[in-house]
Amino acid sequence: MSPMQSTDWGQSLWASLPIPAFLLNPDDTIADITPSAELFLNMSARSLRGHPVFDKLSIDAPLEDAFAKVRRDQSRLFINNVDVGGGNKPPVQCNVQVGAISDRPDMVLLLLEPRQIADRMDRAQSVKSAAKSAIGMAEMLAHEIKNPLAGITGAAQLLSMNLSGDDQEMTDLIVSETRRIVKLLEQVEQFGNLRPPQRRAVNIHDLLDRARKSALVGFAAHMRIIEEYDPSLPSTWVDGDQLLQVFLNLLKNAAEAGSEGGTIRIRTFYELSLRVRRPDGSGRALPLQVEIIDDGPGLPSEIASDIFDPFVSGRENGTGLGLALVSKIISEHDGWIGVESVPGRTVFRISLPVAPKTEETD
Ligand SMILES: Nc1ncnc2c1ncn2[C@@H]1O[C@H](COP(=O)(O)OP(=O)(O)O)[C@@H](O)[C@H]1O
Ligand SMILES: [Mg+2]
User: Fold this and answer.
1) Pair 271, 352: CB distance under 8 Å
2) Cα(289)–Cα(271) distance, rounded to whole angstroms?
3) Whose CA is nearest to atom 18 of ligand 1?
4) Which ligand is in closest contact with the Cα of 324?
5) What spacing in Å lies between the alpha carbon of 313 and ligand 1's midpoint?
6) Nearest atom, ligand 1, residue 315 CA
7) What is the distance in A from the centroid of ligand 1 to the CA of 129?
8) Which domains does the chain have, with CATH numbers?
9) For a surface tag, which of 17, 135, 174, 321 has the fewest beta carbons within 10 Å of its beta carbon?
10) Confidence label for 318 from pLDDT (cuts 50, 70 and 90)
């Protein structure tokens, strides 16, 4: 019987806490866990009550000390970026809080805040506002600059006809560099002109196959691309053209990060735990997961927290617009994107909704 059942409101408050929380007995056995914690661990409260918390949760932090300190001082402790796993679930980075409970001085409350979700929420907000102001201006400029650039390219090409050798190299340089600027401007325009998604029921594996094939004959010709698909995935509810662009941008980055003979893995799977809350309060499940994983050197640490912002690039010839566009498209679909990166393994994960039951796949 849970100690929280002593008051009715206490029990319902506990049950509706939207974060994984654990109530621990004086001997560090589990007294109760919230339904969010059941979801997080994929284990039921019944199977956990009475068991030592350290048998059921693997937490990469000195929690025994933390519990002792909290019980002694009746205080609260925060530990950030802790790997928390449980059952056969792989560890997830969390911010952890340990707190005392006023009328039960020997018990301890353990709260987990999965980082990925916290980070993604911040990201969606900041991208929207930063992108809007930077892009409005850039889009206007892009449009204005493209015409004179066409003139410059044309003039350089005319000039080059009467030149030879070294001189022609210079006009070639003018032509290739102006082309590069035009490409950048087109990306800026594409970003600004993004239309609202026209959603249909789409087989995500068809999109991924198209992206993979065009990657392999182009920018990813030097890489190996491995598919790890869950063939039983239901259709997703997206704008196919826009999602194709998302996958191409992610594959392109992975290919640019990878060395000759590197490997990109495309993984799809079903995972129910993620929901997104809309501003109007309605919730939506995002159970379809797509991961693009590369074995390159990982995100440059100086820009790792800003890669989804426009014009942030770690590459000499980069525009910094690839991931900004990805992030914008995903956010217009009410989806999530997150990234985890260490040298040798970078994972971009996209979470998407399932198509309504009444919709047929094309
Ligand atoms: N898979 C990856 N591995 C390592 N770094 C990456 C990866 N994907 C993105 N990045 C980093 O994020 C930056 C921003 O990416 P992006 O927005 O696509 O712009 P761009 O590719 O034009 O530089 C890249 O320049 C790179 O430094
Ligand atoms: Mg890119």
Assistant:
1) no
2) 7
3) 322
4) 1
5) 6
6) 25
7) 21
8) 3-115 (3.30.450.20), 197-362 (3.30.565.10)
9) 17
10) confident
Q: Who contacts 321 (Cβ-Cβ below 8 Å, separation ≥6)? A: 184, 187, 188, 191, 310, 311
User: How does 162-199 read in b/e, with b if 16+ C-beta sit within 10 Å?
Assistant: eeeeeeeeebeebbeebeeebebbebbbebbebeebeb
Which uninterrupted H or E stretch holds 217?
A: helix 204-217
CB 223 within 8 A of CB 296: no
Q: Which residues, chain by chain, have CB under 5 Å from ion ligand 2?
A: 253, 322
Please answer whether residues 275 and 283 qualify as being in contact, where contact means their C-beta atoms are separated by less than 8 angstroms: yes
Residue 39 C-alpha from the chain's centroid: 20
Q: How many whole angstroms from its chain centre is CA 111? A: 23
- Tokens 């002593």, residue located: 6
**From CA 56, how far away is CA 329, in angstroms rounded?**
39
Statement: residue 24 has pLDDT above 50: yes
- Ligand 1 mean position to 291 CA, how many Å? 16
257 C-alpha vs ligand 2 centroid, how far in Å?
10
Q: Which residue's C-alpha comes closest to atom 9 of ligand 1?
A: 253
Name the more confident of 41 and 353: 353
User: Token pair for residue 24?
Assistant: 């621990």
Cβ proximity of 330 and 246 under 8 Å: yes
Ligand 2 mean position to 246 CA, how many Å?
10
Nearest bound ligand to CA 323?
1
User: What's the pTM value of the predicted model, to 2 decimals?
Assistant: 0.62
Ligand 1 neighbours by CB, cut-off 6 Å: 249, 253-254, 257, 294, 296, 298-300, 307, 312-315, 318-324, 346
Tens digit of each residue's pLDDT (9 = 90 or more) over 226-279: 999 999 999 999 999 999 999 999 999 999 998 888 999 999 999 987 776 665
